[in-house]
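call fold(seq) -> tokens
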Amino acid sequence: MNSRPKTLKRSMHNRRIAGVCGGIAKYFGLETWLVRVVTVGALFFSFSLIAFVYIAAWMILDSDDLSDRASKGRTFEATSTDDYHFDIKSHAWQAGEPPKQALSSLSKAFDKLEARIQSVERIVTSKSFKVSREIDRL
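ret:
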């Protein structure tokens, strides 16, 4: 489980102008397109207030790490048990992967793990491994 508290930061990966909407979407667990639509809609009703808040957030909020940029690419390379976490959305406005896409990512991850296990199994069951093991015992 992640023990770090969530912090509001500008998104450097999911950005159009300054990453404010992407950061807000990530913080609240929403889709970025939804936050952008609400922001643009609010701009029509109170342009000066929303523009001021957006520019202030741009100046005040820190940008996210470069490590978050690398984790956004969905090439599944698991290096620890934390990499096996998938955010699956149950509603259209939530952030995360659709269930079919998450299942596909899991399938690819298990295929890679199975290939690694098969290669280890081939080595362990080979005659040369058995011979070298017997020599090491002497």
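Confidence is low (pLDDT under 50) at residues 67-78.
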